[in-house]
Automatic annotation (TrEMBL):
Pfam families: ATPgrasp_ST. One of its GO terms (molecular function) is ATP binding. This is Alpha-L-glutamate ligase-related protein ATP-grasp domain-containing protein. It comes from the Bacteria. InterPro entries: ATP_grasp_subdomain_1, RimK-rel_E_lig_ATP-grasp. Transmembrane segments: none annotated. Residues 211-367 form the Alpha-L-glutamate ligase-related protein ATP-grasp domain.
Amino acid sequence: MSLFDEYKEFRTIWTPEEDELRRRADDGYEQRHAYVEYYMNELPEYYSTGLRMIKERMDEFNKPECLYEGGYSIENRKLVEDIVYSLHRFGASYIEYFQFDFMRKSAEERNTFATSRRRAMAYKVINSPEGTAICENKEESYARFNRYYGRDVRRFDTCNQSSLKGFSNMLAEYGKLIVKPLNEMQGKGVALVTVDQVDACGLMGVLSEGEFLAEPCLENVDELRLIHPASLNTLRVETALFPDRVEFLTPFLRMGCGDSVVDNGGAGGIFANVDINTGVIVTKGHDEYGHRYTLHPDTGVIIPGITIPQWENALSLAAHLAESFPECKMAAWDLALTNDGWKLIEVNHNGHPLMQIADGVGVWPKMIEVMKAW
């Protein structure tokens, strides 16, 4: 049995009626209406809650700079039913419907996207529990890949006075540190802590309660630092491990915005796809809420056409990391280019394939290919 067979068993099992409606719904609006009506009658509270969430997403994207044309209205029955259909048929969350521009895509095109529901199920069979646990705990990740981090990373606990003393000593040694909550993801809780901040507010005035990792600040090479100097701008490379090779999903560069020290899309950062063969950015910058940028909004740097230095070295490092981590057949590696070369920032077992937003090309066929190979 391949991993894809496991995936098919793991995913939601449709009733015969639902399966028939699902297949017919791809053919047009009237059949789609019947498909949505099935959920409206079978799960009325779920459907009602969904309408409120759809309205919230429409409000987020219903801005002139986010729209290709027209606008979104909760009174537009066809649009609402298309969103609900896309959730149940393709696993697309309400925000993904807008991010992936599904309203302008056919059922066949939509079926190529690695949506949130599909990813959630697929990663459970593609990546082992052991590999997932390593990715979800930053300390375990560091222990596994410490030679690729290229910096001093230490664990501390705000509930332990001796540990806080150790943090104070490390801060005095480096002057400023990046702190990361031990078990958070997507840049949540990441902060820059300086000696001056601690002098003014005290340790507990600048630290969140609990366990965290601290590390010295890395700096990009000039070519990448100038895009947004306040943050470390990183390359996301998601690898697909096959029995005889490593392949790459489309890489993308992540760039911070405003005063943020992180570049995560979920923290307000923007991203742009990089051509795998040349290392040149080939799309505009995008954020997760439909805005598109030819120029970086803070620095004015032209995003399309930026060349990522030492490109082959980045791909070589990502391939090597993938081969050394068979517990995760698909892993997303965040890499930073410094004056000392490429450094690993972190590894994710469930990378959000934002490249689908930037170029409108789905990566679900590649995920299926990986599952069928094992």
